[in-house]
């Protein structure tokens, strides 16, 4: 235990001798302990530590929160106005869109509070408090109450969080929950108290020709000209507390909001980002990087490309389908292209070689320390990876096809319950189950699902899966296809999509009128779903068994790397908790003879315009504003209109929508992407190439003001000229 405490102290000590300030997703709660505020000031920060994060008062932290389930948003007015990315709000925009009200194509601008649209299922979550619970977890392990490996598990951490919340002064307060998580691969544990507001309304969204300008082609690319933003508002009860939607709710009077700077940016200016990076793997060994490429990225690329080809073709044929599948396609495409770029960047940036060099240094360090655990750990990780690679490949193929690909299914557990009720001639029970089935039928055939589109997806993916996975490793439904349909996937899929009880309203109504065990037993789609979940359970158990040893090995390796790097600080991998990254506005050179400037302007939008390509259509109103140079107070000194800029901030997925803040604590932009050349950055940060792509706050305000004619939104913001 003393050795562990000593190691943790070393891990957290900070004197930036060799570290580069740009790298690092730093924990707010360790800012003072790590003295990082001094380095931030050297970079250009003009604030004090308590202005950034103050556990006992109000700080910048209180203006930033989780938008939805996977993005960051910031508060930009005292009345709960949220700024986030367009792609973060895309699901909500799509949810409210129809052929008659196509907000995806035309944009949406609420002209007053009454026009702001309630968005069921959308929430905004603040971090109320952060507590170090490492000693509590370690004590329970030492006392034998739990095993060390169990301390990482969700059931244990959830139970512990609930117990600690029950003892807290926050117990019972509206919207409050607690989450316990491991950091530094389980060398530390923190408890986060969260406050969730569930009445969030859509306020403003530019048309997709602005918010998604460049589409798939420009995704992860620079130069960029995308106005990737949307706005929402938090509503609360009369006391400012979280409440479900009600017409009586009022805009939240926020305790902190970000002021906005119109001064603009210059190369070298200080820039920091506060947000919720989702996941990084900076402490992988070389063997694990190779596994990532071959067992995760490669199959993901292949399956998603096949599915997206179907969706792309069907969306082009119908506005209805385009709107239905817009969010699904965007979500799939984003990390399809990310996986392609990551595999390329791993090779181009020699990431595996870098990891091998680090392992060599670590081995030498371990020998110097005389620490046998450190000397053995890399080989032990490599041995474990030799067992995990095959199962992780199977897992990725399976999840991409059967969980993330094909949507149609039937509630096989309800079917089993109904069979039991019918066998026992329990009419009351049967009627109750059928009522539940009606709800499931409605959930299947929701407004964002098209049965014929999904049929085509299934016809593309089922045979592809058979090509990728050996027969003995496939779900049992493949035996049914082989025996009963002679391996004809199209015939099997048509039988499922035509004849299943849940395939259409007519089939379902006929079954409900006269439910029978025979009909349930014959239902091919129910057999399909049953085999899917049997395989999911099997793979999950196998995967947990072979990957479990890696958990404690990584704890040792990360602790050792922290010691080896001293006195340079270490930061934990991202896990969708609030972090701070700081650096500077900066251009870069992606390859020999090529230089990328640190900002773009509307001139580039006009240069990219292609009326025949939906990704590069420019709205007529935007062209009119450009031609008239009607940029108002948002233009550069030379009269051009800025659009996007680059910074050296260390971000990843989950940071989307995060505020980019200058040295005075003022908002200068919103982060929305990384650059193609550094898509290996989740594994290995490259100080020369890694860039964060941000939409300039001046372009956001210009669009809101001039194109959206929503000056009332501008007026409620705190703008510094």
TrEMBL record:
Q: Which residues cross the membrane?
A: none
Q: Which enzyme class?
A: hydrolase
Secretion signal, residue range per the UniProt entry:
1-21
One example GO MF annotation: dipeptidyl-peptidase activity
The UniProt function text for this chain reads: Catalyzes the removal of dipeptides from the N-terminus of oligopeptides.
Q: Which GO terms describe its biological process?
A: peptide catabolic process; proteolysis
EC number(s) per entry: 3.4.14.-
Can you tell me which family this protein belongs to? Answer: Belongs to the peptidase S46 family.
Q: Which organism is it from?
A: Bacteroides luti
Annotated Gene3D superfamilies: Trypsin-like serine proteases
What InterPro entries does the entry give? Pep_S46 (IPR019500), Peptidase_S1_PA (IPR009003), Peptidase_S1_PA_chymotrypsin (IPR043504)
The source's domain of life comes to Bacteria
Q: Keywords, A to Z?
A: Aminopeptidase, Hydrolase, Protease, Serine protease, Signal
Q: What is this protein called?
A: Dipeptidyl-peptidase
